[in-house]
Amino acid sequence: MKVAVAGCCHGALDKMYETLELLQRRHNVRPDLLLCCGDFQAVRNEADLRCMAVPAKYRHMQTFYRYYSGEKKAPVLTVFIGGNHEASNHLQELPYGGWVAPNIYYLGYAGVVRFRGVRIGGISGIFKSHDYRKGHFECPPYNQQTIRSAYHVRNIEVFKLKQLKRPIDIFMSHDWPRSIYHYGNKKQLLKMKSFFRQEVESNTLGSPAASELLHHLKPTYWFSAHLHVKFAAFMQHQTNSKEELPKATKFLALDKCLPHRDFLQIIDVEHDPNAGDSLEYDAEWIAVLKATNSLVNVTQSAWNMPENNGLHAKWDYSATEEAIKEVLEELNHNLKIPCNFTLTAACYDPSKPQKQVEPVHTINPQTTEFCAQFGLTDINDRIQQAKEEGSVRGEHEEEEEEDMDSTGSAEEPSEYNTDNSGLSSINPDEIMLDEEGGDEDLSTCSVDPSPDHPPDFSASFSDIRIMPDSMAVSSDDAMDSTNEELEKSGVSKQVEEKSLSERPLKRIGGNENGNSGIKKIKRRNQAIYAAEDEDKTE
């Protein structure tokens, strides 16, 4: 089947789907599935805009609300993960995944689903070492700290994914796995993004958590976005025994949405021709969620996942065949994900702007139903209980008091060495947070691709498949020559604060409708992973 993969779409759903329709009209190419690697921006209304970690001048409604309201429907099944520019309050309603609009499915903090027999996994957010070992404690309305920490990857999600034993076909992360640049055309990457050089040479660019998952899961494909540059790599994994068959991962990072040419890629993926056309639960993943349910944490306290170090009675939470069989029996072997999308917030009305509306903490009925069906903890319900007991509120107030007395936050101990505070490269793709800046508005991009640059669909990942199995990274020159073929592949298109007061949680059911320094939100991993840049950059 044909799978379209998109980079950061930044809420430009109309333009993204128009691009796909254009492919069909001009080249008779119609994808069966669309994957988006974060910065999806599922913004429903003005309150959602206030939950995005971007300066006010970059908060544009874009076009997702039209799909949320039912005015439009996604023409192709769309599955996405979260990035670092999201309406975090909306995605937080669906920690285990769910429909954000008809035919548009969010994978949750981490998740695995199946489509036509193809196993698709992903992890949302970006890596930040000092938040990595915390629980999911944030809830709207956010303050200046939690509006960012809400999208930071947590160790429990990585731990859950590492319990998987069965093969993964496709995996998505927003930020790149650390070190993946050593397996592609590094010279070309540094030619396009010269400010990556110091991080690449010091091997600090990218997420160490994603790298850990890459080595463990060994998926056939791995797709990322975040750095706004197209980059392909081919990683041959080491085998643990002579009996184990060699595995390799085809990695591809996509550029942001229009007007960049490389934000979209079409690949051919082997699938089960006898499988249905519905999105399905993955039985092993459900079994892992059930096994790890006791590990759910909604506090800010740093904690480590169980491991075989003599300190934990249990450290293996992988799903047994019996546990997987039990899940199948619970579902009567019907793994189809129910189409139970429900409106949980008022939709944006251009004729009636509501600029003063504030976000509220909402429990989504999809999550309630999912947790009840599989006996899982509703994270948002647990957060609300903790708030009522005063534990989360007390910790939150203490943190705010500490922030007022200091200019930065101390980093929690981490198993990852992420201190690259000495780096000083500048990324021209940054979003400037100063209100007087003259950066180009991200919302301005042309609708149609330029006829002067027609897309090339002749290659795709078929080029990667014919690469020698023995290919390994021995030098930059060797990899550069092989990766020239990778760079030719694919479909290219030219189409592109204050702190809020607390409010009680809202449960939705049925069909209810003056700092002189310049702060920056950075779209590259140097700032994301720099330990001491917490209050300055992301």
Automatic annotation (TrEMBL):
Subcellular location: Nucleus
GO terms for cellular component: nucleus
Top-rank lineage group of the source organism: Eukaryota
Similarity section: Belongs to the lariat debranching enzyme family.
GO molecular function terms attached to this record: metal ion binding; RNA lariat debranching enzyme activity
A single BP term in Gene Ontology: mRNA splicing, via spliceosome
Location of region: Disordered: 386-461, 473-538
Keywords: Hydrolase, Iron, Manganese, Metal-binding, mRNA processing, Nucleus, Zinc
Membrane-crossing residue ranges in chain numbering: none
Name of protein: DBR1 enzyme
Biased composition (Basic and acidic residues): 386-396, 485-505
Extent of Acidic residues compositional bias: 431-442
One matching Pfam family: DBR1
Major subcellular site: nucleus
Span of domain Lariat debranching enzyme C-terminal: 235-380
Needed co-factor(s): Fe(2+); Mn(2+); Zn(2+)
Higher taxonomy: Eukaryota, Metazoa, Chordata, Craniata, Vertebrata
Record has Hydrolase as a keyword: yes
Polar residues compositional bias, start-end: 415-427
Originating organism: Pluvianellus socialis (Magellanic plover)
Protein's UniProt keywords contain Nucleus: yes
